Amino acid sequence: MEVKGIVKLVGKTEEVSAKFKKRDIVVTTQEQYPQHISIQFVQAKVSLLDNIIEGEEVEVGINLLGREWQSPSGEYKYFNTIQGWRIDVVNASTTPEPTSAPAPDQAEDTPPF
User: Fold this and answer.
1) I want to staple 29 with a disulfide (CB 3.0 to 4.6 A). Which of 2, 4, 5, 51 is the partner?
2) Count of structural domains, the chain
3) If you average pLDDT over residues 35-41, what whole number do you get?
4) Is residue 99 part of a domain?
């Protein structure tokens, strides 16, 4: 699955334990009713957010994760996580900036080579 939108927030990496780290990003969708989607990157994937800037348009590959938890009293609760595994900047300027063309009167005097 994918989420596409504008980066609203890039969180800091959190060291949850010696073996687990996570980092969150919030992406705002561009729809009639925009949604602010919190996406979590974990372990080695946290570094994917190092060059992401707030305000950029991105497309994020995600997995939806769900888990069940039973309280000591026997009550069940369910939790969901949106976990990112890929992020691409949309419309990044990868083309070189155009050079300015010579003025029309100069172009006529310039040899064709």
Assistant:
1) 5
2) 1
3) 98
4) no
